[in-house]
Amino acid sequence: MREAHVFREKQGIDLRTGHRVERIDPAKRRVAGVRSDGGRFEVDYDKLLLATGASPIVPDLPGFDLPGVMVLKTLDDGRKLKRFLGGQHVERALIVGMGYIALEMCETLRTLGIDTAMVKPRPAFLPWAHRKLAERVQREVEENGVRLILGQEVLRIEAEGGALRAHCTEEVVDVDLVLVAIGVKPCSELAAEAGLELGPGEAIAVDRSMRTSAPDIYAAGDCADAYHVVTGEKTWIPLALRANRAGWAVADHISGQRVSLDGVAGTSVFKVFDMQVARTGLTAREASKAGFDPVEVAIEASSRAHSHPGASALLVQMVGDRASGRLLGAQIVGREGAAHRINGPAVALHQQMTVAAYSQCDLAYAPPFGPTWDPTLVSANQLLKKLEDG
Amino acid sequence: MREAHVFREKQGIDLRTGHRVERIDPAKRRVAGVRSDGGRFEVDYDKLLLATGASPIVPDLPGFDLPGVMVLKTLDDGRKLKRFLGGQHVERALIVGMGYIALEMCETLRTLGIDTAMVKPRPAFLPWAHRKLAERVQREVEENGVRLILGQEVLRIEAEGGALRAHCTEEVVDVDLVLVAIGVKPCSELAAEAGLELGPGEAIAVDRSMRTSAPDIYAAGDCADAYHVVTGEKTWIPLALRANRAGWAVADHISGQRVSLDGVAGTSVFKVFDMQVARTGLTAREASKAGFDPVEVAIEASSRAHSHPGASALLVQMVGDRASGRLLGAQIVGREGAAHRINGPAVALHQQMTVAAYSQCDLAYAPPFGPTWDPTLVSANQLLKKLEDG
Asked: How far apart are CA A52 and CA A50, in angstroms?
């Protein structure tokens, strides 16, 4: 293994692939498990990092273990899917789930010319998004030939003459491939069995220095929770930047640096066909749950100045707190200018800025890139009015 | 005049075009001037707004008044230029100046197939930009067939057989059109003559509510100065968003609302050919002048994730203050993802965030839009290291 060589020879890391840890003993500072050759092993530690990640959720229903029913989390999952698409004649696919991985995959499958349907039990498409924004994204997906089966569950999958038959609540869908993308769960079983405290979503609870409830055991990555910078409470939003940042923070902390991470704003973006979908912070519903008194606006602006050709619509949602005037979250959808534009509001959330303060920001303007008032300023101005009128 | 009708009938505004104000009498609260028909007029006011804008600087040198030597500020200037380009056979153009208007125009002229040269007295291209960023933009401009004549002044222009001959310090350039774009100056003469205080760049000095030094006289737009959110000092950075925002602020203030504007961060962006050039806050040189102890980095990142095709280089400069750790400014150059990415650092400047605090921000990531660590975070991390090492 080339990676093993690099780790061992170049970086002095004793990389042991093919080893499954089955038990952590925090009192003895020891982990124990089994090697791929069947032999057992034990390792003592001074400091232990749990970086077990998350794993895709697969419903415990008949047929979800059939060949041709796949998930997509690891590189190996990707390779397996690619091999399947290359080796079989895949004409029709069903994606179970409509989150960002599901949506990114539907674009890929359509690009390959595959008839694609998506199914989910809840009737709302992108339920976290403002209705206007969700509708815009839904239209984009449907206009690209994806059939959305909303409000139906997949009850079972059957092998049917070399293909797959998915029995949904109200219809039967015949396909060659089923991709299950209904979300992930943290791999926190080992930690739980060792008596470590768990947080939201059963992720491993960590403090701002990534320390778990057990001495000298850290957790980082999709398996660990985080503080939310808007609520100040624990949350579990497994995304790449946080995972990566938490890993560095553990290394720094173990090396003796005082590292303390602020937490996450839940900033994310994905692309589906020609649509960019970005969000940061809380939805109105999440804000209510967290004890805020949310006020929400959604505005439509242009992605370029009036005078500039090639503009498209940019939809911006913003939510603020009536009591404090704080900005709590933002969402942006559009063909251009959504992805990086979310970062202004994201920085604002880290600073617990009010909507009024955000509305004063001096943001960039040039005709090819937006109207004079950045669309996030337009939404902030509207939200401010609504907060003041209340 | 259709505009006059809309103003008078629909909005109840007594619009008087063709009236030139020649004198303000703050004591009598009266303005006086001359109409286009030669008659004189006087108007008394309760509140007066000076929104006189800025005008292009034209050197007082021989030949700058010749036909075919043009400026570009007003809509009329644009129409005149368009007529000239449509009516004459313009094959060669010289642009005097290399600021953002000059650069936007060189793209337009090249798109029309016109041989274009640009000339400026200082040897540095984009002197405010970090050398690496400036070089990248310069290459883009030159690769698009624009000849840059750096370090030369235009001494005079002569009419020469239906064309124009520009005598520069070391060479002679024969063209059909000369476009003068060396900057603007605030139209503050009226205000100065009325005894109003002027600020940086001779712009009309205003407080955070756009009030000048004279009672009941406001100024807004490119003619007025502003506070800089980084230095807290007065500055004059005439840009569209501030001008527009200041106009609204005056209207609100006159209507009895307590309006106070934070000021400007100097956030700006322009596009030249396929390059986006964005900045916010102070350059290292400006930071020194303002009394900071600046530390600067410039990093190169990718505009998309490693695994994503179609990536290009994104250059990010950042400057911080050694003493306070504050972020003082940022610059971003690239083919994609520069324009809106500057807004994160811009918001940070409004909040006087430290580089350390910015480096903790949860910014958006998806493979089509950037690497896991947003390039502004990469630069913040590098800058943080440099600040700490110092």
From this structure: 6
Which residue intervals of chain A are DSSP H helices? Answer: 2-5, 11, 75-87, 100-111, 131-143, 189-193, 240-254, 284-289, 343-350, 355-359, 375-389
* Nearest to B326, CA basis, from B193, B231, B246: B231
Q: Parallel, antiparallel, or unpaired for β B146-150 and B115-120? A: parallel
Enumerate the H helices of A282-326 as residue ranges: 284-289
Tell me the nearest-neighbour CA distance from B25 into chain A, angstroms. Answer: 33
Cβ–Cβ under 8 Å, residues A183 and A202: no
Whether B137 contacts B98, CB under 8 Å: no
C-beta of residue B113 within 8 angstroms of C-beta of residue B103: no
A17 at B interface, C-beta within 8 A: no
- B101, B228, B275, B343: best to mutate for the A interface, most A CBs within 10 A: B343
Are A366 and B337 inside 8 Å of each other by CB?
A: no
Q: Decide the pairing of beta strands A54-56 and B40-44.
A: unpaired
CA Rg value for chain B: 23
Q: Which residues of B touch A337 (CB under 8 A)?
A: 339-340
Cβ-defined contact of B341 to A340 (cutoff 8 Å): yes
Specify the pLDDT at position A6: 80
Of the candidates B141, B131, B159, B4, the one whose C-alpha atom is nearest the C-alpha of residue B68 is: B159
* Coil, strand or helix at B9: helix
Taking only residues 347 to 376 of chain A, the set having a beta carbon closer than 8 angstroms to any beta carbon of chain B reads: 347-348, 350-351, 353, 357-358, 360-366, 368-370, 372-374, 376
Burial A243-279 (b: 16+ CB within 10 A, else e): bbbbbebbeebbeeeebebbbbbbbbbbbbbebbbbb
pLDDT single digits (tens) A140-191: 999 999 999 999 999 999 998 889 999 999 999 999 999 999 999 999 999 9
User: What pLDDT score does A311 carry?
Assistant: 96
B261, B267, B278 member nearest A360 (Cβ): B261
Token pair for B386: 């440099």
Residues 48-107 of B with CB under 8 A from A: 100
Q: Is the pLDDT of residue B240 over 70?
A: yes
Residue A35 reports pLDDT greater than 80: yes
A303, A306, A340: best mutation site toward chain B, by most B Cβ within 10 Å?
A340
Whole-model pTM: value is 0.96
pLDDT single digits (tens) A219-236:
999 999 999 999 999 999
| B331 interfaces chain A, CB cutoff of 8 Å | no
Q: Is residue A88 pLDDT above 90, yes or no?
A: no
Distance from CA of B291 to the nearest CA of A (A): 22
Per-residue pLDDT, A1: 52
Lowest mean pLDDT among A10-24, A269-283, A367-381, B236-250: A10-24
Q: Do A280 and B362 touch (CB under 8 A)?
A: yes
- Residue B306: pLDDT band by 50, 70, 90 thresholds? confident
Residue A172: what are its φ and ψ, rounded to 5°?
A: -115, 135
- Burial class of residue A389 in the structure, from the number of CB atoms within 10 Å of its CB (0-12 exposed, 13-18 middle, 19+ buried): exposed
Helix, strand, coil share (%) of chain B residues, nearest 5: 25, 30, 40
Give residue B390's pLDDT: 66
Residue B273, chain A, CB below 8 Å: the answer is: no
At residue B307, the pLDDT reads 80
Q: Closest approach of chain A CAs to the CA of B267, in angstroms?
A: 5
Give the least confident one: A273-277, A308-312, B150-154. Answer: A308-312
Contact state of A339 with B364 under an 8 Å Cβ cutoff = yes
Cα B9 to Cα B11: distance, rounded to the nearest angstrom? 6
Tokens describing residue B321: 């203050």
Tell me whether residues B239 and A358 touch, CB distance under 8 A: no
